[in-house]
Design brief:
Order of helices and strands: HHHHHHHHHH
Number of domains: 1
Number of strands: 0
Number of helices: 10
Strand content: under 5%
Distance between the termini: 33 Å
Radius of gyration: 26 Å
Structural class: mainly alpha
Length: about 250
């Protein structure tokens, strides 16, 4: 679970609620239909059905982060390199590898696939993964743009209805509610949900892309048959300076 996302969202909603004295005054079904319903419909209209259906899973990734830390992957690759050097590539077949891209690379090593073909396959898989992430981020970016726009349309509809029925005092309140609440709903949807979620997913995508590059370099290192002791030096650029210092200190103390 990504506690930062959960705490951040709950905190934002809590602080916003502190400015509300009557929650009932902010609930208006016509405004909900105009903003939330229209935004969801247009997001579907502009996307493929499969992307729209998968939006729930994309949003779920904001709160469930499964991206490994680079040092964890480096440790796995070092173990794999040592096994391959000691017992041969075939011995890697019995090793459980949770990361999908790393598993594909290990399969290529076990099968004895040529180095260039392994690299091409891993690069292609990396690009497809990046495309899936981009599709999800694009959906959320679209929502961030559409929600305020639908709020503005709702405001205009409310004002037009208000001006068209000035001779009916009973219609002023409902039409003014539509004019104001649609703008509120659109702003909350964009700034509390769509924009932060999209930014979070972009961050995850960058970290996963970095991990995928690390895996490709590591797999090609193992394929070359070089000394496993040199692997960490090869992959050290993928780690932060703080982690490098910590690992160096741990190695010196051993």
């Amino acid at each position: 679970m990504d506690l930062a996302s959960i705490i951040g969202l709950l905190g934002a909603l809590a602080f916003l609620s502190m400015g509300i004295t009557d929650i009932g005054a902010l609930i208006d079904p016509p405004s909900v239909y105009l903003v939330i319903g229209a935004t969801a419909s247009i997001m579907l209209y502009r996307s493929k059905l499969s992307d729209a259906i998968g939006l729930g899973a994309v949003i779920g990734k904001v709160f469930v982060n499964k991206t490994e830390e680079p040092q964890e992957l480096i440790d796995q690759l070092q173990d794999l390199a040592q096994i391959a050097r000691k017992d041969g590539m075939v011995a890697l077949e019995s090793i459980e590898v949770p990361n999908r891209l790393l598993k594909s690379g290990v399969t290529g090593l076990v099968d004895g696939t040529k180095a260039e073909l392994i690299q091409q396959g891993l690069e292609r898989e990396k690009e497809l993964t990046a495309a899936r992430h981009e599709s999800g981020s694009d959906m959320l970016s679209a929502g961030a743009e559409l929600a305020p726009g639908m709020g503005m349309i709702g405001t205009l509809i409310g004002l037009v209805n208000l001006l068209a029925n000035l001779d009916d005092p009973s219609s002023i309140g409902p039409n003014m509610a539509i004019a104001l609440l649609t703008t509120l709903y659109g702003s909350v949807l964009a700034n509390v949900f769509f924009i932060p979620m999209g930014m979070k997913l972009e961050g995850y995508a960058k970290r996963e892309s970095n991990n995928n590059d690390l895996i490709i370099v590591g797999i090609m290192f193992i394929k070359s048959g070089k000394n496993p002791r040199l692997l960490e030096d090869t992959l050290s650029p993928f780690m932060t300076p703080k982690v490098k210092i910590k690992r160096a200190a741990a190695q010196e103390s051993e």
